[in-house]
Amino acid sequence: MSTIEKDAxxxxxxxxxxxxxxxxxxxxxxxxxxxxxxxxxxxPLFGWIMAFQNYKLxxxxxxxxxxxxxxFKFLFDDKTFLRDLRNTLGMGxxxxxxxxxxxxxxxxxxxxVRNVMGKKIVQTxxxxxxxxxxxxxxxxxxDAFATKGMINELLQGLHIIKEPISYFxxxxxxxxxxxxxxxxxxxxxxxxxxxxxxxxIDPSLYEAAAMDGAGRWQKIKHITLPGIRSxxxxxxxxxxxxxxxxxxxxxxxxxxxxxxxxxxxIDIYVLNYGMANFSLGTAAGIFKTFIAMILIFLFNFIAKxxxxxxxx
Amino acid sequence: MFKxxxxxxxxxxxxxxxxCNTTFLVLFCCVTLYPVLNTLAYSFTDGSEAxxxxxxxxxxxxxxxAYKKIIFEMTGFRQGLIVTVSRTxxxxxxxxxxxxxxxxxxxxxxxxxxxxxxxxxxxxxxxxGGLIPSVILMTKLHLTGTFWVYIIPGLVSAFNILVLRxxxxxxxxxxxxxxxxxxxxxxxxxARIISPLCKPVYATVFLFVAVYHWNSWxxxxxxxxxxxxxxxxxxxLQKLLSSLTQLNPTADSSGKTANMTTEIQxxxxxxxxxxxxxxxxxxxLQRYFVTGxxxxxxxx
Lengths: 312, 300
Known about the structure:
The structure holds two protein chains of two kinds.
Chain A: H1 17-22, H2 24-46, E1 53-54, H3 60-63, E2 65-66, H4 70-77, H5 79-111, H6 116-127, H7 134-144, H8 150-157, H9 174-199, H10 203-211, H11 216-240, H12 249-254, H13 260-263, H14 266-274, H15 278-305
Helix pairs in contact in A: 4-15, 5-9, 5-11, 6-9, 9-11, 11-15, 14-15
Chain B: H1 2-8, H2 12-43, H3 47-52, H4 65-73, H5 75-107, H6 114-126, H7 131-140, H8 158-169, H9 174-181, H10 186-197, H11 199-215, H12 218-223, H13 233-247, H14 258-296
Helix pairs in contact in B: 2-14, 4-14, 5-8, 5-11, 5-13, 8-14, 9-10, 11-14, 13-14
């Protein structure tokens, strides 16, 4: 997220009276936004104190009793929480890998299309699912994987399976279904950035490679993939922090009944138990943020070590 | 001419690749479109007919009764539509105005607190209090159970500020300087000079916010579950779909009543109705989304 800062040192303003007076409108506006930001973004951070208390709504943050790390200890002894942590990380990683690989593959294949009109049509269609809500997407997925749904119909038609499978009755199908839902929804959208990067690769590289007799596959391997490598890495680092955030809507909407042991994530845990016990819910939320930060810094560090592009 | 040259040079392997690639992309489009078209076909098929045999792309026993039902009979759905339309419109306009003004302040080159103010907002992108502190805050601010809980908390967002600021910083300074020489104040420069130049990026942010609000349901469930007059369209859809799922977990149990068969059709119609505005609009507006994504995402 680096932006080109155009400040020349000479233009850097000093905090003097004349300058403050000249910028007073800007300062008033900025001040109003800071007040807004403190209320809606920083006060909830202050609420983290609740995780170290036996928080009661009537006593408030200042009146509630402090209990140290009690709720964090509780979380690590709680089998449900550990199970949900496993589900969150497992599905998060699978989804990240699946959506990244399909987006890159789709972008490369689309970039090979020479017909401008065809390319445009395919790309427009590919964005469509991104604009649908998860409510709509999960409804479509539920129908598609239903016993009489199109997936069973297709597999039976191709004689791959004999009897229809009840996908939502077996836990083993749930993670793949979540991954497929994510891939279906986001492949086209995620490919946008990769396509933009591929377009910006210097065409003379391809021409030179063609002169040397490189085929299509060799050009993809030696020019396209290295050309988008830094984009892939930056996006991976940025998204790795979201691995834990991505586990809510689809799991909440699809993972009902017998699927709970494999579908419940930390966010669902917070919703189920945190609304009744604010301190516990806040502790689980802090834990999630903490893991996200560790993952971002870890991957940034690995990228730095490998001499790759990095976020900060 | 260049095209012809490359075409004539294509080898057998190249042709094989082009054919495979085209086939694959056509299949990709089918996989993307089929479920949506299938839902569309179900929404126009008479419910008792749909239960007998699967509908694919063409509706059987064509009827629009499901649409009539969701528009005229299901008050919750109609109410949700009104709330969603108002929230989408209000939030998009207000968020755009709020984010643009802040981005303008941050993008002024000699603004005294330029860096610290940017940092103040960038932090909010990575550190957030989580669900529980937010719920408590909304209760304390008396926003829970009101329409404004959809608008006020998300009014300013760091991502949109970054997109707008990047665009504004890329504009040449000369416009602003000449306006300043003419004695224009900061607000005049923002309204008269910068904003007209920012139309494309304003469209982008407006659309990002609008899509988010059109599709949101979680805040309705958390804050307005007990206030039916404030629930959103997507949440009403979710209620409709989950009531059916509970009745009939795999959507094909053997005890089919006339009422449940029509539910399949109603549910398809409701799904189509909620996605219709976005599907109709996005192909024409896609260049704005792409601009926003490329500005806000990775930059060299």
